[in-house]
Design goal:
22% of the residues lie in helices and 27% in strands. By secondary structure, the protein is of the alpha+beta class. The protein has three domains: 148 residues, no CATH class; 79 residues, no CATH class; 43 residues, no CATH class. The strands form five sheets. Strands 1-4-2-3-5 form a five-stranded antiparallel beta sheet. The protein has a three-stranded antiparallel beta sheet with strand order 6-7-10. Strand 2 and strand 3 form a beta hairpin. It starts with 5 loop residues before the first strand and ends with a strand.
């Protein structure tokens, strides 16, 4: 799966943060915006209600994965409260949320959100207000810069930097480190996909604090569970690219018998992830004694 930025929200007028968190996500169907933040790294722009008559906006990021992004935004609602008619200075609006999947193999310093934040801070360093995360600049100008900079982060993958070549060569690592994606499991319709994961050899401590060799047994996990594990997202995305993006939806092979007794085979999906060799033979037909037409593909 691609790890490009996804735009979860972009609004010139902004929306009350508490309201947006409760709304349904327009990107992740079946989830609320709050739920869609799980295991995401995000870049966001917010503005406190008491600064509504100014051009002061706060930029921020969350880069730790798991529930960190949702916790970060929820903290704003606790700190600023929610808007009401009694006190118009309460509340905080959110204007932009860019997100991509947290990859534990990518250092925080190499993540897209960190690099984007660094560029924005540098571009508007002369417009800083009370710290380097608050900038006094019209939102239109900020959006324009982000649109220009966004293309720099339009690649499929971030730079994977957390590698230990020596341990990887020995097939050793932390107990949670993924060694290989073994296979895929789904229901009859091909939905609810889960993957069988093989883990790298590691160790654990016994009751006497002695280190003992240990390898976690294979497990069937969802995409969201695997990408949180060391080497998980990298290996799973490679597996998906090699095994799922070349699926063939043609009908299965079936055989029937005609009235004349001829056996007719419908060649459905003959792909099965194998190479389709072409012998360059011409399509030809002939008629058997029984009258059945036989076609050589």
């Amino acid at each position: 799966m691609s790890n490009r930025f996804q735009i979860l929200l972009k609004s010139q007028d902004g929306i009350e943060l508490d309201t947006w968190l409760r709304q349904k996500s327009i990107v992740f169907k079946g989830k609320s915006n709050l739920e869609s933040l799980d295991n995401m790294r995000i870049f966001y722009i917010v503005k406190a209600a008491f600064e509504k008559d100014t051009n002061i906006y706060k930029i921020g990021i969350s880069e730790r994965g798991a529930h960190a992004a949702k916790s970060r935004l929820i903290d704003y609602t606790y700190y600023y409260g929610t808007a009401d008619k009694v006190n118009p200075c309460k509340g905080v609006k959110i204007y932009l949320v860019l997100a991509n999947h947290f990859n534990p193999d990518v250092n925080a310093s190499d993540s897209y959100v960190r690099k984007l934040e660094t560029r924005v801070k540098d571009e508007f360093k002369e417009a800083r207000d009370r710290g380097n995360e608050r900038i006094n600049v019209p939102l239109e100008k900020l959006f324009k810069y982000l649109e220009e900079t966004y293309d720099l982060f339009d690649g499929d993958t971030e730079k994977v930097t957390r590698k230990t070549p020596r341990l990887a060569e020995k097939q050793q690592g932390a107990n949670e480190a993924v060694k290989k994606i073994v296979g895929i499991k789904s229901d009859r319709r091909g939905n609810n996909k889960k993957y069988e994961v093989e883990f790298m050899a590691g160790f654990k401590y016994d009751e006497n604090e002695n280190r003992k060799p240990y390898t976690r047994p294979n497990a069937i996990l969802s995409y969201d569970e695997i990408v949180q594990l060391p080497r998980g997202k990298t290996l799973l995305d490679e597996f998906i690219k090699e095994n799922e993006e070349n699926t063939d939806t043609t009908a299965p092979t079936t055989t029937r018998t005609t009235r004349n007794g001829a056996r007719v085979t419908n060649l459905g999906n003959t792909n099965n992830n194998t190479t389709n060799t072409n012998t360059n033979q011409a399509v030809s037909s002939r008629t058997r004694k029984g009258g059945a037409r036989v076609t050589n593909l």
